[in-house]
Write a structure and sequence with these properties.
The complex is a heterodimer. Chain A is mostly helical. Chain A has twelve helices and no strands. By secondary structure, chain B is α/β, with parallel strands linked by helices. The chains are: A mainly alpha, B alpha/beta.
Chain lengths: 278, 238
């Protein structure tokens, strides 16, 4: 890749991220609604944990405070990771809604640049939104992060983005394969990840086939690693194995995602699926 | 089959018109050249690059104006255009000035530049689409019914801008149109298509002379026995 082309691709990458920013500014009312929904969801999980004691959960071995923190961390992280996942997974669906898919696919931009530009915005936006939800949760539940190792948690969070992008690119292929049902299939993938990735419970409570699926989900390692740092103070050194697993998954998932996307794009052009919106 | 076997060479620098009713294969041809459709058989090259195997190189030199306004409707003309400029590597400090210049040439009121596209009329949206294509400075401009929905004055403004652009630098234009007056005014060469086949190919005056029509509409009627406005099934992929 020449310097000129690299410069051009970088400009396009920023162009996609900037376009998303403009779109979100115009749809700001929706974003306020989604932020409210995120806050309410996380608070519900927090109050669910608070209510466990009154429902009879207790005993000497049951740490209610720890259970609450466990669930809140899961809810917050799921909110962030699922937002990044769905933003990237909806890269194509969004273009179909707006009727811009042909224009974007005709642009002299590598598909990798296109999808990474969308992910770049999603990561930044997701962080901002999750930070606001975190502030509300900390204020209401008086969460104690005094034992947390923030550096370890941030390292896992950063590494978890890599395989998540790969998974999201794979999912974004669905609306290319099926203009009618692709979007709904993206939701199904998201729901399945929620089930098997240990967001609100340890994997050990799942039936064996779902445990196997959970072991293949990068979110499982991301959530486990983050909890390890936030609840038990695991530092950067302790997290290196988890980071290694996440990066290895990313190294496999991102090229696989790009390859599958390229195949789906060729298929769509052969069958004339780009033009269709339904 | 939307497009039959076609042997066509377009020389750089001219305006070539493709005339035909709906379903004649002209939009399919434009999509193939724009790398949006893959032909079942045969090859197509743009400035020597294969549209399938070297699609990225082709796209660097091509832009398209389609009959549907392909915009983010909530974004303003400026936001849509700066996005396009970034994708085509032509964004810079002078982008806003250039956008204003082009929109002025097209006769678009400048107070709409920061309004959402959805608030613009169909004609205004189409002018922004044309302005966006000019902004990216393509060497090959594919125009699929570019002036459909515009009033006669706006059509004239688009034609003037196209002529201005051609005077500034060499640009090859392929334009699909139903508008016979537009074709006669703009095109140095005209292809008449029907049923996915090219029926006639030549200069407008030459076609009229050979086929004995006073106008291009007459030539088309002579060749097909129908008018260009006739309703045909919508085009499908090849």
């Amino acid at each position: 890749m020449t310097v000129t082309v690299r410069h051009s691709e970088m400009g396009a990458l920023l162009g996609f991220a900037e376009r998303q920013l403009y779109v979100y500014k115009r749809y700001w009312v929706w974003e306020v609604v989604w932020l409210f929904y995120s806050v309410v969801s996380v608070l519900s999980i927090g109050f669910l944990a608070s209510g466990l004691g009154t429902l009879g959960a207790g005993g000497e071995s049951f740490d209610l405070r720890k259970a609450q923190l466990y669930l809140l961390v899961g809810a917050l992280l799921w909110g962030y990771l699922s937002l990044v996942f769905m933003e990237a997974a909806y890269a194509i669906a969004w273009e179909r809604w707006e009727g811009t898919i042909e224009y974007t696919f005709m642009a002299p931009v590598r598909r990798m640049t296109h999808l990474m530009g969308i992910c770049l915005f999603a990561i930044g936006y997701g962080l901002a939104r999750t930070f606001i939800v975190l502030l509300v949760a900390v204020a209401i539940f008086n969460i104690d992060f005094s034992h947390a190792n923030v550096a370890g948690a941030l390292l896992v969070l950063a590494a978890s983005i890599v395989p998540l992008i790969g998974l999201a690119i794979l999912t974004s292929v669905l609306p290319l394969l099926s203009p009618q049902k692709g979007e709904q299939m993206s939701f199904a993938v998201q729901g399945f990840m929620l089930l098997v990735s240990g967001v609100y419970y340890p994997l050990s409570v799942l039936p064996m086939p779902l445990q196997v699926a959970g072991a293949a989900s990068p979110l499982t390692y991301a959530l486990s690693g983050m909890r390890h740092s936030l609840l038990e103070g695991a530092g950067v050194g302790d997290q290196l194995p988890t980071v290694g697993i996440l990066l290895a998954m990313g190294a496999a998932l991102i090229p696989a995602g790009i390859l599958v996307f390229s195949w789906a794009e060729r298929r769509a052009k052969r069958l004339g699926l780009l033009k269709r919106s339904g | 089959m939307a497009l039959h076997e076609l042997d066509l060479i377009v020389q750089p620098g001219g305006v070539t018109g493709i005339l035909g009713p709906n379903g004649s294969g002209k939009s399919t041809l434009i999509r193939i050249l724009g790398t949006l459709l893959t032909p079942d058989t045969g090859t197509a090259r743009v400035f020597g690059w294969d549209v399938v195997k070297e699609a990225l190189q082709v796209r660097r030199h091509v832009n398209r104006v389609s009959v549907e306004a392909a915009f983010f409707k909530e974004l303003s003309p400026w936001e849509n255009m700066v996005y396009a400029a970034r994708l085509y590597g032509s964004a810079g400090s002078g982008t806003r000035r250039r956008v204003v210049e082009i929109l002025e040439l097209l006769g678009l009121p400048l107070d709409v530049i920061d309004q959402p596209m959805k608030q613009l009329s169909r004609g205004q949206q189409q002018k922004v689409a044309i302005a966006r294509s000019f902004l990216t400075a393509p060497s090959l401009l594919l125009m699929d019914e570019p002036t459909t929905g515009l009033d006669p004055r706006s059509k004239k403004e688009v034609q003037t801008v196209l002529e201005t652009l051609r005077a500034e630098r060499e640009i090859t234009v392929l334009v699909c149109t139903h508008d016979m007056n537009e074709a006669e005014a703009l095109c140095e060469r005209v292809l008449m298509m029907d049923g996915g086949r090219v029926l006639a190919d030549g200069r407008p005056a030459e076609l009229c002379r050979i086929h004995g029509g006073a106008t291009l509409e007459g030539v088309f009627m002579h060749l097909t026995g129908k008018t260009l406005e006739a309703e045909e099934p919508a085009e499908v992929a090849p």
